[in-house]
Design goal:
By secondary structure, the protein is of the alpha/beta class. The chain has helices at about 15-20, 35-45, 55-65; strands at about 5-10, 25-30, 50, 70.
Length: about 70
């Protein structure tokens, strides 16, 4: 079944993201930061990326970064 993980981008998440993707997590949710660095890596592993935003400008940047779902 699908399983998701939420990552706070205020801190480095490269190792946690790698561990999640290695374990087959298919939904990556991020917040508080720029998701751009995580999106391509997650997509390459077959995951869907959600990103929580606080403004319309943040939403536009998330869409431009390739996020699948903006909340």
């Amino acid at each position: 079944k699908p399983f998701g993980v939420n990552l706070d981008l205020n801190w480095p998440q490269e190792d946690r993201l790698a561990a999640c993707l290695d374990e087959g997590v298919t939904i990556i949710s991020t917040f508080w930061g720029d998701p751009a660095a995580s999106v391509a890596r997650a997509h390459k592993a077959g995951a869907i990326v959600f990103h929580t935003v606080a403004s319309a400008d943040d939403a536009r940047r998330a869409v431009d970064a390739g996020v699948d779902v903006v909340v």
